[in-house]
Structures are given as structure tokens and as C-alpha cells.
Design a protein that fits this description.
InterPro entries: Class_I_gatase-like (IPR029062), GATASE (IPR017926), Imidazole-glycPsynth_HisH (IPR010139)
Distance between the termini: 22 Å
Domain Glutamine amidotransferase: 9-206
Strand content: 25-35%
Pathway: Amino-acid biosynthesis; L-histidine biosynthesis; L-histidine from 5-phospho-alpha-D-ribose 1-diphosphate: step 5/9
Helix content: 10-25%
Organism: Moraxella nasicaprae
Shape: globular
Subunit structure: Heterodimer of HisH and HisF.
Oligomer: single chain
Length: 211
């Protein structure tokens, strides 16, 4: 029987760690909640969760050395990031006017109050279920492409250039980036740990993924 991969779930003082840990365990992972560089280096894969305000998230990442740990992990192993974790991968966030990790080129922007659905202005924050679609047969999306996932956020990621990226989109007022795959990095704006069957399938795909 194949051993479950060890996933370092990064603890930097923000994030719904235990719901993510439970979902990863149900999906087949062996989870270690940690901010210890040795445990992160020893893990097979890395997960960066995130909730809350970007300025606090980035301050906590830098305080705990998670910013360095994420970039080191990207040199050698699969990394997944959720919600604020996804936003942290870009250059800059309008939320708090803060510099982020700069792994991907782009800006985190607030939803525009002028966006409308069926003639009605969207509500901010965006909270609820939306279909996420990726034009790809990538292993990470097997069995869960074009499914509903759960979102809760006021800001979205706007990549500068999608060349070399596998981008999944959803619609809320207008189409926006809901997920990106680049090499061994997989990021989602939605919360797979709150997305029931589709979310567990996506996490299972990440656990099995060998980029």
C-alpha cells in the first residue's frame, strides 16, 4: 500500500487551519501543521491557507518566515495556496496597499461596485457558490472541472500575463481569475475545504499530483 504524502500546512497565525487539515486528511493526505522550516523541508508537499486581511497576512508570513519557506518549497515540491494564500502569490494587493510575495506577476484588486449581474449591482464581499471552469485536461482538474466551489472574498487576482499559466475562471459580475496552475504551483481563490465533494476531489488530485 502506497504511503500517504506528508503535507506541511503552514501556520502563520491566520487561516482556517483545522478545517483545511481535516479536509486534506479526508482526501488522503498526512497533514503536519507547522511553521518549522525543518518540517516544511521534510514534507512532500506544502499548503498555504489564508483568511482575513492581506496586510496582516503578509506581516505574519514575514514574522514566521513563511514567505521564505514558500519560495524555497517552490524550488522542489508541489505547493498549493488558498484564498488569501493565492492572493499572496502576486506582486501587490490593493487591500492595505501591500507588497506580496511576487511569485506571479499581477495585482490583487477589489471587486468593482459597478459590476452587475442581471442588471443588479453585485454584493461585496462575494460569498457563495459559483461554477469554476478551466480550459484544460490537467490532472488537478480531473473530475471537478465546471463544478461549484465556495467563495468568500472582496478582492480577486488579476494576472499581468496569462502566458504559461493554466487559469480557471468564474463569473461574478464579470469573469475573474479563480485559480492558477504554473509548474508545481496550484492556487485557488475559492475554498476547496468548504466545497463538499468537488472540493475533496480537488484536494485528492493535489495529494496525488506529481508535476
Amino acid at each position: 500500500m502506497m504511503k500517504s504524502p506528508t503535507i506541511a500546512l503552514l501556520d502563520y497565525g491566520v487561516g482556517n487551519l483545522y478545517s483545511v487539515a481535516n479536509a486534506l486528511t479526508v482526501a488522503g493526505g498526512n497533514v503536519v501543521i507547522t511553521s518549522d522550516p525543518k518540517q516544511i523541508n521534510a514534507a512532500d508537499k506544502v499548503m498555504l491557507p489564508g483568511v482575513g486581511a492581506m496586510r496582516d497576512a503578509m506581516a505574519n508570513m514575514r514574522l514566521h518566515g513563511i514567505d521564505v519557506a514558500v519560495k524555497q518549497a517552490l524550488d522542489s515540491k508541489p505547493v498549493m495556496a488558498i484564498c488569501v494564500g493565492m492572493q499572496a502569490m502576486f506582486n501587490h494587493s490593493e487591500e492595505g496597499d501591500v507588497a506580496c510575495l511576487g511569485v506571479l506577476s499581477g495585482t490583487v484588486r477589489r471587486f468593482d461596485d459597478a459590476w452587475c449581474d442581471n442588471g443588479t449591482p453585485i454584493k461585496i464581499p462575494h460569498v457563495g457558490w459559483n461554477v469554476v471552469s478551466a480550459d484544460t485536461n490537467h490532472a488537478l482538474w480531473q473530475g471537478c472541472n465546471h463544478q461549484h466551489f465556495y467563495f468568500t472574498h472582496s478582492y480577486y487576482c488579476d494576472p499581468d500575463d496569462t502566458a504559461g499559466l493554466i487559469v480557471a475562471n468564474t463569473h461574478y459580475g464579470q469573469s475573474f481569475c479563480a485559480s492558477v496552475i504554473r509548474d508545481n504551483l496550484f492556487i485557488t481563490q475559492f475554498h476547496p475545504e468548504k466545497s463538499h465533494e468537488a472540493g475533496l476531489r480537488l484536494l485528492s488530485n493535489f495529494i496525488k499530483w506529481q508535476p
